[in-house]
Structures are given as structure tokens and as C-alpha cells.
Design a protein that fits this description.
Elements lengths: L5 H7 L5 E7 L2 H11 L4 H4 L1 H5 L10 H14 L7 E9 L8 E12 L4 E10 L4 E10 L1
Antiparallel strand pairs: 1-3, 2-5, 3-4, 4-5
């Protein structure tokens, strides 16, 4: 969807419209995310300690999967120029290194007078397990 103005992009949005982004989570993703954020929780970076956790091994940061939602919003739907206003998140299952995660956003409601879009957001693994769900509010 190539647009020349924000107005045209907002006007092209429809309730029910959706887009997605898919990525396989790698060891490098987890290590780099830990380095960028400073979140070196052993559940993410220490296999020995993580084996003793409720997950029985290392898991990716929940916010890494949530960041894939931001990828969809900023690059696909609504797309470039979108401003994130808010997001609710519920982390429902772990993501492990090697899992392929798909983030999908679906337009739930449009508020033309404020140029706001409200979207349902969900991340699932290649096995269909929901790992993150929530709602986003964006300014288009």
C-alpha cells in the first residue's frame, strides 16, 4: 500500500483489515535484545539456571515478540508514519529459540475525527500457540 499523505492512508483503512510479520527467533535475537534492553534475566540468557525455572529451559523475552507487533504497525498496517499511542499485552505462553512467531494486527475500530485506529494484536508460534495478545491504539 503506497500512499502519499497520512489522510489517504487513514481513509484506506477498513475494519477487519489485517497484516502480519513472521520471524524465526534466533539465539542472536535473544542475546542482542538482552544487550539492547539490559534484560539479562537468567530465564533468557542462562541455560543452566533456566532449566530450573518453570519453563524448563531458556525462553525469549516476551517483549521481543511484542516488538514484532510494532513492526507490523510501523511498516505494514497502518504503515510508515504511524504513531504508537498505547498497547495492552497479555503473555500467554513462552517463545523458545527456534520458534517462528507471527504477529498479526487487525483493525477493530476507526475514529476518523481523531485519526485513531484501534487494533487487535496477537502473536502465535508456528504451532499455532498464542504467545501474546492485546490491543493497540495508534495515531495515523
Amino acid at each position: 500500500m503506497t500512499q502519499t499523505t497520512d489522510e489517504a492512508r487513514f481513509d484506506d483503512l477498513e475494519v477487519g483489515q489485517s497484516a502480519h510479520f513472521t520471524k524465526t527467533v534466533t539465539e542472536a535475537d535473544v542475546v542482542l535484545f538482552a544487550g539492547v534492553t539490559g534484560d539479562f534475566n537468567p530465564a533468557h540468557v542462562n541455560e543452566v539456571a533456566a532449566r530450573e525455572s518453570r519453563f524448563g529451559g531458556r525462553v525469549a523475552h516476551g517483549m521481543l515478540s511484542a516488538a514484532f507487533i510494532s513492526t507490523v504497525l510501523g511498516t505494514r498496517l497502518p504503515g510508515p508514519g504511524t504513531i504508537y499511542v498505547g498497547q495492552t499485552l497479555r503473555f500467554t505462553a513462552p517463545v523458545r529459540i527456534g520458534d517462528t512467531v507471527t504477529a498479526r494486527v487487525t483493525v477493530r475500530e476507526l475514529e476518523p475525527e481523531r485519526r485513531r485506529a484501534y487494533l487487535d494484536t496477537v502473536c502465535t508460534t508456528h504451532e499455532g500457540t498464542v504467545v501474546v495478545e492485546g490491543e493497540a491504539e495508534v495515531l495515523v
